[in-house]
Specification:
The structure holds three protein chains of three kinds.
Chain A (H helix, E strand, L loop, with lengths): L1 E6 L2 E6 L6 H8 L18 E4 L2 E4 L12 E3 L12 H8 L9 H14 L5 H7 L11 H19 L1
Parallel strand pairs in A: 1-5
Antiparallel strand pairs in A: 1-2, 3-4, 3-5
Chain B lengths: L20 H4 L16 E7 L5 E7 L1 H4 L4 E6 H5 L5 E3 L5 E3 L5 E2 L5 E7 L2 H10 L1 E6 L6 H4 L18 E8 L1 H10 L2 E12 L8 E7 L4 E6 L4 H12 L9 E4 L15 H13 L3 E4 L2 H7 L2 E13 L5 E11 L28 E9 L6 E3 L7 H18 L4 H8 L8 E2 L5 E2 L4 H12 L1 H13 L3 E10 L11 E2 L2 E2 L2 E7 L5 E5 L8 H13 L6 E5 L16 H28 L6 E4 L2 E4 L2 E7 H10 L10 E6 L8 E10 L6 E11 L6 H21 L3 E2 L5 E2 L18 E4 L17 H18 L13 H10 L5
Parallel strand pairs in B: 1-14, 12-13, 15-18, 16-17, 25-26, 32-35
Antiparallel strand pairs in B: 1-7, 2-6, 2-8, 3-7, 4-5, 9-17, 10-15, 11-12, 11-14, 15-16, 19-20, 21-31, 22-23, 24-25, 24-30, 27-28, 28-29, 31-32, 33-34
Helix pairs in contact in B: 10-18, 14-15, 15-16, 17-18
Chain C lengths: L6 E3 L4 H11 L3 E4 L5 H6 L7 E4 L9 E4 L2 E5 L4 H6 L1 H6 L1 H8 L4 H4 L4 H6 L7 H8 L2 E6 L2 E6 L4 E3 L2 E2 L6 E8 L5 E9 L6 E11 L5 E9 L6 E2 L1 H7 L6 H14 L10 H25 L2
Parallel strand pairs in C: 1-3, 2-3
Antiparallel strand pairs in C: 4-5, 5-10, 6-7, 6-10, 8-9, 11-12, 12-13, 13-14
Helix pairs in contact in C: 5-8, 9-10, 10-11
The chains are: A alpha+beta, B alpha+beta, C alpha+beta.
């Protein structure tokens, strides 16, 4: 099947088998390898991308379902050579170690901050509870999201 | 510690941002599944549904007829090259692919080679295997009973399932002390099978270049150099020679010990590439990862602890059954089949101790890897910390005061333990007192009393662990004969920038940053000007790899030693440049200046340039050095953790309300990274304490073989860790550092288990095995008549 | 984990979908949110030759309250329910429920219709709808019909939907004054199915006695269980400790759990008792606030 979709504002087309998982289209076909795979059962969130602005697990969607849709992956966070405040936050607060869950965490965090500009710690923890991290113990991921929230608020106030 | 270097240089003590982060936060890391080569083939593996069965027939016809499938590889195929068995790290043997029978559920049975990931999966689904089930041995105790089916029928003279007996310590003295004790406590403790479950699973891309006879393997390995040697030793007879093998360990998505062993999938992929001359990718899925990769723990322990009436601890006796699955594939130093379990006297000044461990075969996957700990230290710490807590409660003493009374005292270091270890340094009381202050221990005990009167269940648990990391001195430590040194090679470029390569391999620990900071500290070259590389065996110096918290103790020391060699040569060049005698120069990070004339100096950058442009006659040009560091001793990080839990009497849920962790890993290189390691370690301590377990039913069916039932904690279950530290430098490490990656995983479970038992002690509860699930707590509560 | 190959259909209208489903029969699986179906397909526990993706059918995603009924389109995502102001303010039981289904990312795709039509006894909406006394609207090749939820779940993973029929809408009676509900779920961690969960919905009279009670149970039987005797025991009574304890015991007696890694039969039955008590207290507290 022919699939047309937009990823990070760029149009892509591919001929795919209906059973091709969206994550494999993104990684193996379109070679955007920042999106990862960590489980088989929709638990880990390493494959999180934004579908029409909402974070979803791209291992639990067929590529054909994304036909005509607009996606965003970790590669789309940096704009014109400028890192997104979340990316800055993850570096500043040591919100990543091995980096494997990080793209998923970033995408979830990005969508979350769009709706919750002044989140509490508990709200952040719930928001990222579909993304597993084995390295950081989450404390610094929470701080990284808070860090980004503060930067974004400052930016909005200016 | 006040840093000696400026923040701009970024030496020890600075929380500089990590050098690896810019690629990771952009999704530009290169993990093994990101490697895609032209013409690459895919491997998928057919696995056994049975825990023990004869293979009657493997029917490959339907698989071979599947579009895209090129071949089905079986044990018979590998047997032609004598590659169907391979040695384990403990010199036992393990099947790559079976020829006649399978020994555990999910064992590899055949492999399908295809042109795509999807075709390989279709092919694997199309292979049909006829089995004849054999009796299954699940329980290691039953495995040792007379008449139990003998599992290792491949071993000619093997008549039972006993692998080895190992004991350590003074049996007679321990028995005597036990008999003479005023008080003893005895407890069976099971530390269940768990799995590291790094978020990236294992896999490889093997590429045999037929023109140059060169094998390159990108693989998820924590020990690339040792792997290269193992490949050469195992496959030398089919033409793989060590200088024609290149192992590349790219970015690794978490290791925790699970990426130390050689798994059959790697070997099959290599064999497939050698046979086809094409690159072959094998990436396991999560269920394969949990069901077939090396497990951790699985120790059935019986411990006895003795004390005098006044609360002085005197002796410890431990007997253990170690369930190894069908082969002993533990990742231990050769000399120690039970790892460093005999550090089990922990932080306490015990005069006598004796440990026995028996290894047993069962119909389970092999392993015995770490789960983020140094060779069975978690088992040791959990045992002693549970036992000390039991004894304190038994004697009616406060568990904190009881620990303070029995700790090895600061003035006793270096301290020789009853089981022969020489602890390098410690101040155990300092760490515990700091933890007590930080959490306000006295107030918590008061709160607990008040709550108990109202029928509420609150517990406070302590764990004052001693770790043993940095394996290790070559006298005692080797893996397959390879001594456990590690290495650093530094080259300073003419413009004063540097590249440094190491025998270790980061899996998230931040080596690119930490090592650069060590070199910045020693050379004064800014950390940002130092490129750190690891994981490519064609370029990096030989080393044993990263596990057991050995990178900073061993390779970090190598970095310091190599840097000091560079500095020695730099001194000669500086003397030449300034036309003074070497002994008239003094060093501060970044420059040599003339004693008494501080404005007369040469920077390390000046010196580096001169090393290539104006080096003294009689001295070789260039500025570089290598160190293969053989540590004189292990290092002994320690800490005290205090945990507060609330228990829901209705549902049995345990909630960790607060958790204060005071760690001492000696001198700290990057405080931010150290704290991050502790956060992560604590979470991997919480996980087995309350959530994770891999068990088997009577037929050997795995329970917890996917993330549906193998319960990695999310951010919601994980408490907000509170950390702090004390600093007791290692006297023998060049930087006074000790290693920290695993301390928290080792120390945390006992704190949580002790807190739960503390909450329930007044009801008569003495012990609950981890993981302490709501169902277990509920059962205990109802047995004790507590209900909502 | 790779699903087996299948033929993909994306009907653009309900008529096309029902015609297609009628033609394909057992060969077809409906793809809604896909958060249960796709994992099953990846594990090859389900390998349907045809997949009918209904996500392209317009007009199946809405939450509107009119004429005494809250109507929810079958394709409404869990996260949309969670964010709905009507649901949050007026249907606390439903709000509680959609917050504890799977995890927040899964809820961005998972649909309420899928959660019900999949009829997994471990799913959370079935008990909630039983407690709320909802109706579902089924649409087939020969038209539309309404079914009371109590007759919808016919067995594990089985419903009263006929071949070719699609669940298109869920209808929940708008709450009377002094109504409230709550969902109490014990899960081992976020993302897990319930060890046990209880949905309770109460309408109180002005004197505080129970006018109407709905109690239903998740994952303690082969189907979601409506605890009828527990419900009946409350009617006309004030919610004192003894009354709640009695209802909780009856709910527990109605449960038929199986032992698994989450716990023993005895544990789960007792959990039903404990959670029923807690859910009733919370429901009553909420009802009391909505005079």
């Amino acid at each position: 099947m022919r699939v047309q979709l937009s990823i990070n504002g760029e149009k892509h087309e591919a001929d795919v088998e209906p059973r091709l998982l969206l994550v494999h289209l993104i990684r193996d076909v379109l070679r955007l390898t920042g999106t990862h795979i960590g489980c088989d059962t929709t638990h880990c969130g390493a494959c999180t991308v934004l579908l029409e602005g909402r974070p979803v697990k791209s291992c639990t969607m067929f590529a054909v379902q994304a036909n005509g849709k607009s996606l965003m992956t970790v590669e789309g966070l940096e704009q014109d050579g400028k890192l997104h405040p979340l990316q800055e936050g993850f570096m500043a607060e040591h919100g990543l170690q091995c980096g494997y869950c990080t793209p998923g965490m970033l995408m979830t965090g990005y969508a979350f901050l769009g709706k919750h500009p002044t989140p509490t710690e508990d709200e952040i923890r719930v928001a990222i509870s579909g993304n597993l991290c084995r390295c950081t113990g989450y404390v610094n991921i929470v701080k990284a999201v808070q860090h980004a929230a503060a930067t974004l608020r400052e930016g909005a106030a200016r | 510690m006040t840093p000696r270097t400026s923040l701009d240089v970024g030496g020890m003590g600075h929380s500089i941002k990590r050098k690896e982060d810019p690629r990771f936060i952009r999704g530009k890391g290169t993990y093994v599944d990101d490697v895609q080569l032209p013409g690459m083939l895919w491997l998928d593996i057919v696995r056994s549904p049975h825990a023990h069965a004869k293979i009657v027939k493997i029917d490959t016809a339907a698989a071979l007829a599947t579009p895209g499938v090129l071949a089905v590889i079986t044990g018979q195929d590998l047997a032609k090259y004598n590659l169907h068995w391979m040695p384990t790290l403990m010199s036992d043997t393990q099947m790559v692919l079976p020829v006649d029978k399978v020994m555990y559920q999910a064992q590899e049975v055949a492999a399908v080679l295809a042109t795509s990931r999807y075709a390989a999966a279709d092919g694997a689904a199309a292979v049909t295997v006829e089995y004849e089930p054999l009796p299954v041995v699940v329980d290691p105790k039953k495995a040792l009973e007379p008449g139990a089916p003998v599992l290792r029928t491949d071993k000619k003279d093997k008549k039972d399932n006993h692998i080895w007996h190992w004991e350590w310590g003074d049996r007679a003295a321990t028995d005597r002390a036990m008999a003479e004790a005023d008080v003893t406590v005895k407890q069976d403790i099971y530390i269940p099978r768990i799995h590291v479950a790094s978020i990236e699973t294992c896999g490889c891309v093997a590429h045999f270049d037929k023109v140059n006879d060169k094998l390159t393997v990108w693989m998820t390995t924590q020990a690339p150099h040792a792997i290269r040697t193992v490949f050469a030793l195992v496959a030398g007879h089919v033409g793989l020679q060590e200088h024609k093998i290149r192992i590349i360990s790219p970015d690794i998505g978490g290791g925790f010990g699970g990426k130390v062993p050689v798994y059959p999938g790697y070997v099959i992929a290599v064999a497939a590439s050698v046979l086809t001359g094409k690159p072959v990718k094998w990436i396991e899925d999560r269920m394969e990862n949990l069901q077939a990769d090396s497990f951790a723990r699985d120790y059935h322990i019986t411990a006895e602890l003795a004390a005098k009436k006044d609360g002085t601890l005197t002796a410890l006796r431990i007997k253990t059954l170690a369930d190894h699955g069908y082969t002993d594939a533990a990742a231990n130093p050769s000399k120690f089949p039970a790892g460093l379990f005999h550090v089990c006297t922990g932080s306490y000044d015990l005069k006598a101790a004796h440990v026995e461990v028996d290894g047993v075969y069962t119909n389970k996957p092999p392993g015995g890897i770490a789960y983020r700990c140094s060779f069975r230290v978690t088992e040791a710490v959990h045992t002693i910390e549970r036992m000390v807590d039991l004894m304190a409660h038994q004697l009616g003493q406060d568990p904190a005061q009881f620990r303070l009374q029995n700790f090895v005292k600061p003035e006793q270091f270096p301290y020789k333990s009853a089981l022969g270890w020489e602890y390098d340094s410690g101040n155990y009381g300092g760490a515990l007192l700091k933890a007590m202050e930080q959490i306000d221990y006295a107030r918590l005990r008061k709160e607990q009393q008040e709550k108990r009167q109202r029928g509420q269940l609150m517990g406070i648990g302590i764990s004052s662990f001693t770790e043993i990391v940095g394996a290790g001195p070559s006298k005692h430590f080797d893996i397959l004969g390879l001594k456990m040194f590690d290495s650093c090679e530094i080259r300073i470029h003419p413009t004063g920038k540097a590249i440094a390569r190491f025998g270790t391999k980061s899996q998230g620990q931040g080596h690119e940053t930490t090592y650069a900071q060590i070199l910045a500290e020693e050379l004064g070259i800014p950390a940002r000007d130092i490129q750190v590389e690891e994981g490519d065996t064609d370029t990096a110096p030989y080393g044993l790899g990263t596990y057991a918290s050995r990178s900073t103790p061993v390779a970090g020391a190598a970095a310091a030693v190599a840097a000091r060699k560079v500095r020695d040569k730099a001194r000669k060049i500086a003397a030449h440049l300034m036309e003074v005698a070497e002994q008239d120069l003094e060093w501060e990070p970044g420059k040599f200046s003339v004693k008494g004339a501080p404005d007369k100096f040469k920077t390390i950058q000046d010196i580096a340039f001169a090393a290539y442009t104006n080096h003294p006659q009689g001295l070789e040009a260039g500025l570089e050095a290598v160190s293969y560091y053989d540590p004189p001793n292990l290092t002994y990080p320690f800490g005290s953790y205090i945990c507060v839990v609330d228990i829901d009497a209705g549902t049995g849920e345990v909630k960790v309300r607060r958790f204060v962790a005071i760690d001492d890993c000696g001198n700290i290189i990057n405080p931010m990274i150290v704290q991050g390691q502790i956060h992560g370690g604590l979470t991997m301590g919480l996980a087995p304490a309350l959530y994770e377990e891999i068990s088997y039913d009577d037929n050997g069916n795995i329970q917890g073989g996917s993330f549906i039932d193998y319960l990695l904690p999310t951010a919601v279950e994980t408490p907000k860790w509170e950390t702090g530290h004390t600093v007791t430098p290692s006297p023998h490490h060049p930087l006074g550092a000790k290693g920290v990656g695993e301390s928290a995983t080792v120390g945390a479970p006992a704190a949580i288990a002790n807190a739960v038992v503390d909450a329930l002690w007044h009801l008569g509860v003495r012990h609950i095995d981890i993981p302490i699930t709501p169902a277990k707590v509920w059962k205990v509560l109802r047995e004790k008549g507590v209900t909502e | 984990m790779i699903p087996a190959a299948f033929e993909y259909h994306a009907p653009a209208s309900l008529d096309d979908a029902t015609a297609l489903l009628a033609r394909l029969g057992e060969e077809a699986k409906i793809l809604s949110g896909g958060q249960s179906l796709i994992p099953l397909m990846k594990l090859r526990l389900s390998s349907p030759p045809h997949v009918v993706d209904i996500n392209g059918i317009p007009g199946l995603s809405y939450i509107r309250e009119a004429d005494g009924v809250l109507a929810i389109g079958a394709l409404t995502r869990e996260s949309e329910l969670e964010e709905s102001e009507i649901v949050r303010a007026r249907y606390p039981l439903l709000h509680d429920t959609c917050k504890v289904i799977a995890d927040p990312l899964v809820r961005n795709l998972a649909t309420i219709g899928g959660n019900l039509a999949h009829a997994d006894p471990a799913n959370d909406h079935p008990a909630t709808m039983l407690a709320l006394g909802a109706e579902v609207v089924a649409r087939g090749p020969s038209g539309q019909r309404r079914l009371p939820i109590a007759s919808f779940f016919t067995g594990p993973f089985e419903t009263a939907l006929a071949p070719g029929e699609l669940l298109v809408e869920i209808r929940i009676p708008a709450p009377a004054a002094r109504s409230g509900g709550a969902y109490f779920k014990l899960e081992r961690k976020v993302g897990d199915f319930a060890t046990a969960a209880v949905a309770a919905q109460l309408t109180l009279r002005s004197d505080g006695a129970v006018e109407q009670a709905g109690i239903a149970l998740t994952n303690v039987g082969l189907t979601p269980i409506k605890a009828v005797q527990a419900e009946t025991s409350l009617r006309g009574k004030r919610l004192d400790d003894a009354t709640i304890a009695q209802a909780a015991r009856l709910a527990s007696a109605a449960s038929e759990p199986a032992a698994d890694l989450r716990g023993s039969v005895a544990y789960k039955k007792d959990l039903v008792r404990v959670l029923t008590g807690r859910a009733l207290r919370k429901a009553a507290e909420r009802a009391d606030r909505r005079r």
